[in-house]
Amino acid sequence: MGTARKYAVIDPATGKIDRSIFSDQAVYDDEMEKIFGRAWLMIGHESLVPAADDFFHTYMGEDPVILTRDGEGRLHALLNMCRHRGNRVCRVDDGNAKRFMCTYHGWTYRNDGSLEYVPGEAEAYFGALDKPSLGLTEARLETYAGIVFATWANDAPSLEAYLGDARWYLDTVFNRRDGGTQALGPIKWLEPANWKTMVDNCSDNYHVPTSHLASARVQSRWLGRPRLSHEDQFASPNKHAFVNGHAVTFRDADDNTPRFVHGMSQDTARLFQEYHEATTPEVERRLGALRARRVQLGNHSIFPNGILGLRLALPRGPLETEFWHFVLLDREAPDEIKRALRIGSQANNGAAGMFEQDDVDNWRQVTQASTSRLGRRHPQDLSMGLGHAGPHPDYPGVVSERYISENNQRLFYRRWEEFMNAESWADIPLAPIRARFDGSATMRG
Ligand code: FES
Ligand SMILES: [Fe+2]
After folding, report:
1. pLDDT at 1 over 60
2. According to a count of CB atoms within 10 Å of the terminal CB, is the N or C end of the chain lower?
3. Which of 80, 81, 87 to mutate to test the pocket of ligand 1 (most atoms within 8 A of CB)?
């Protein structure tokens, strides 16, 4: 059970934040229960389990979970813990299996979680074992455009309400084409950083011209990508928005150009332009003209730990995070586009990605600073753009006036407080869905 501890870690008037939340074990233990024990968590993608009886091993926070597709095609998120003594019943990353047998005493579960066979059920248990009550523990599961989410909380709202108006922006990447998306990967690695440092970094464009200077110069020089400078950023009409814990940055431009993504270079720009033009009528039918032609999702995070697309920051203690990097592709995109995105994504944000390595150094140092007794006396300063964000006539959520702002970070840590101080979901506020979802795209794709 959680403690009655009350958290007030960020001062909304000054943006000062208590840095001990990045390294304190007791805070971390509370997070596992109050955030990872109750939020909707991104755990995978339907394309990872395309056929009946496929499974994919994943995590909800620190808890091992098997994502299965049963014989009837239904998805399940099952805690990988034998209900007898607790052994893992699945020891591999993925595969196809109708059953999972625990290798301690042989209890065997169907892939819908039900306990099917117990050695000695009649002889050893005298027929007294309550098998129906001993299936694998199952989480609630819902999908959004093929992305699989799960929660342990029976009182959680629907996934649609949880994503709320953030989906208005997310649709522009995740829900673009009739054929949906496919996930490749993941690449997995460990980072010596607190999980929150990488989530709040998703809305930090301020660091890009400094931290990524060398990487950006390489890209400008050799790939023909646009220069990155503070001046360009400060003059940019792009914006940040925040809804229900989810943070997005987006490009706001009426030039109807393809989204500038890793993998796009002077060699592939024509391909991306052609793909954009060929698919615009379909995207407009699905998302409406404003989102199809003008709004482009930039960096984003889905509360609590979904980062920049289908990438996960899985907590492994206060000072360590296991990072999972998937590449998400439009299923019906031409092979050349898929290849460019696959290579570009890994070259920039994979384990050996140029940008990723720049970022990890920052996250590690922010985490390390929070372990210092002296350092903890001095809060982080997240004051940038205070008082310069609010409702916008065209765009949902709390929208910042500028592209460079710490509004999303302040609101992320306030959302964190809301979860950490809540007794149940009844205490966690949700913004109502107000955005106009023009077009035919739905939660189901
Ligand atoms: S722990 Fe699984 S069968 Fe005993
Ligand atoms: Fe970065």
Report:
1. no
2. N
3. 87
CA separation for the pair 176, 377 (Å, rounded) = 47
Nearest CA to ligand 1 atom 4: 105
Cβ–ligand 1 distance for 102 under 6 Å, the answer yes
What spacing in Å lies between the alpha carbon of 164 and ligand 2's midpoint? 26
- Measured CA to CA, the distance from residue 386 to residue 201 in angstroms comes to 18
Task: Say how many Å lie between the CA of residue 207 and the centre of ligand 2.
Answer: 7
User: Could you report the per-residue pLDDT of 193-243, keeping only the tens digit for each?
Assistant: 999 999 999 999 999 999 999 999 988 888 888 788 899 889 998 999 999
Residue 190 has φ and ψ, to the nearest 5°, of: -100, 140
Proximal ligand: closest to the CA of 89: 1
Q: For 95-144, write each residue's pLDDT tens digit.
A: 999 999 999 999 999 999 999 999 999 999 999 999 999 999 999 999 99
Ligand 1 neighbourhood includes 118 CB (under 6 angstroms): no
Where do we find the tokens 């790939």? 223
Six-digit token string for 34: 């109050």
Please tell me what DSSP assigns to residue 206.
T
- What are 238's two structure tokens? 């792009």
- Identify the DSSP state of 357: H
Say if CB 240 and CB 408 are below 8 A apart: yes
Determine contact, residues 431/244, Cβ cutoff 8 Å.
yes
129 CA from centroid of ligand 2 (Å): 54
If you take atom 3 of ligand 1, which residue's CA is the nearest one? 105
Q: Which ligand 1 atom sits closest to the C-alpha of 82?
A: 2
pLDDT per position as a tens digit, 63-89: 999 999 999 999 999 999 999 999 999
Q: Which residue has the tokens 């996960």?
A: 312
**From ligand 2's centre to the CA of 319, what distance in Å?**
19
Query: pLDDT band at 4, cuts 50/70/90?
Result: low
Ligand showing the shortest atom-to-Cα distance for residue 81? 1
pLDDT category at 252 given cuts 50, 70, 90 is confident
Contact 16, 382 (CB under 8 A): yes
Question: What tokens were used for 3?
Answer: 């403690």
103 C-alpha to ligand 1 centroid (Å) = 7
